[in-house]
Design goal:
The structure is a single chain. The protein is an alpha+beta fold. The protein contains eleven helices and eight strands. It has a four-stranded mixed beta sheet. A four-stranded antiparallel beta sheet has the order 2-3-7-6, with no helix packed on it. A hairpin with an 8-residue loop joins β6 and β7. α1 runs parallel beside α3, α4 packs antiparallel against α5 and α9 runs antiparallel to α10. It is globular. The N and C termini lie far apart (53 Å).
Length: 397
């Protein structure tokens, strides 16, 4: 029977706080106890961090814990695990996979990354060339290939991976979805230094990496279907994150406008007002999208949110640099670092301007997302395709 009583949720939360006082319990131990009590993500099944409650009831728990000063699981650091891996494991994993992976993922003991994009298959993800061949003796899958633009690969314990298992069928078929152990000796992670000076992304080389069949998600050859769950959740997590009014990119420029009257011009004022309104519309649209999630899995509306997120970030950061004039040309440092997370609002305007250029590429390029919105949200005719019924091995590359 589903949990629908907010008072009972509050009681259980207070029971957790009594049994594991925040002041004397190690953060990781508290998070484990929270997961075991079903208060991690209440809409998940009992025994997997949830109580089969409506997703809309999570704020009841969060508010009680926040008021008590309880630790969180640092969601920005483990966002790929929370936003992409977890819903995919829940949707397609075996009972053993769910029990093995979900608890350490949510607690933050194991960081995840995403091995999807490749040098020759970024926007056209289904054209991926990384191969997975099954060892007939052991049943293991032998993986060879290269992935790119992999956030957190230098920190990750596990990766969600798609690879081609059958080159003799069209590209959207013959793909299989795996969970890859990033500590396997055949996994090599190399930093990719970006325009910001940091190496937040990585390229990953896979050489005879062995993945047991027990770490396959979904049927062999049906990986594209599994990957769609990951991608839809990714776009919601990027474009539909919950933020307060004037949160995100619009916050720093609005603050500068209020505190630095000497920088103001009529033209910039009009443009800032327009972007402020658009940012608020996007924030409210994100709230509506999250309410729709209560009814089930995310739809393709997340693609529209992610599209708008990229455009707004780039326009707002560009206007901020313009507002600051000569100051906007300054950049704090170019030190080569491999950060654990992206921090848009904690850095200077130059960083925001440069880093936002990647927003229209990561999580699905804007060009691809425009097609998705046109075809799957608006119902417009699909673009002509010449590769639909052609075996992947016969495609020009």
């Amino acid at each position: 029977m589903k949990m629908t009583d907010a008072a009972e949720l509050r009681r259980r939360t207070q029971e957790l706080l009594t049994a594991h006082p925040v002041a004397t319990t190690a953060p990781t131990d508290f998070l484990k106890a929270r997961f075991d009590a079903g208060l991690a993500w209440v809409h998940y099944p009992v025994g997997l961090g949830g109580l089969d409650a409506p997703r809309s009831m999570q704020p009841v728990v969060d508010a009680e814990l926040a008021a008590a000063g309880a630790p969180d699981n640092d969601p920005r650091k483990i966002g790929i695990g929370l936003g992409m891996a977890a819903p995919t494991v829940l949707g397609f994993g075996t009972d053993e996979q769910k029990q093995r992976f979900l608890r350490p993922l949510w607690v933050g003991e194991e960081v995840w990354c995403q091995l999807f994009s490749e040098p020759g298959a970024g926007s056209d993800l289904a054209a991926l060339a990384t191969r997975a061949v099954q060892d007939e003796t052991t049943g293991d899958w032998i993986i060879n290939g290269q992935k790119v633009w992999t956030s957190s690969a230098h920190l990750a314990r596990w990766a969600i991976l798609i690879a081609r298992t059958d080159p003799d069928v069209p590209k959207h078929r013959g793909i299989t979805y795996f969970i890859c152990d990033m500590t396997d000796p055949g996994v090599e992670v190399r930093p990719l230094r970006q325009i910001t000076g940091e190496a937040e992304f990585n390229e990953v080389f896979l050489t005879d990496v062995r993945i047991p069949d027990a770490h396959r998600l979904g049927p062999v050859g049906d990986g594209w279907k599994v990957a769609q769950t990951t991608l839809m959740n990714e776009r919601v997590s990027i474009g539909g994150a919950r933020i307060p009014r004037e949160g995100g990119m619009i916050g720093p420029i609005a603050q500068t406008w209020r505190e630095r009257p000497e920088l103001r011009t009529h033209d910039v004022h009009q443009r800032l007002l327009t972007l402020w309104v658009e940012a608020e519309v996007a924030r409210l649209t994100g709230e509506r999208l999250r309410q729709q999630l209560v009814a089930g899995q995310p739809g393709h509306e997340g693609s529209g949110m992610k599209l708008n997120f990229a455009r707004l970030n780039q326009e707002i950061s560009g206007l901020e640099v313009e507002l600051l004039g000569e100051e906007g040309l300054l950049y704090s440092e170019w030190t080569m670092r491999r950060p654990e997370m992206v921090d848009f609002t904690g850095r200077d305007a130059g960083y925001r301007y440069l880093r936002s250029k990647g927003n229209s590429i990561e999580g699905g390029t804007s060009e691809v997302l425009l097609n998705i919105v046109a075809e799957r949200v608006l119902g417009l005719p699909t673009e002509p395709r010449t590769d639909k019924d052609v075996a992947w091995k016969d495609l020009a590359r």
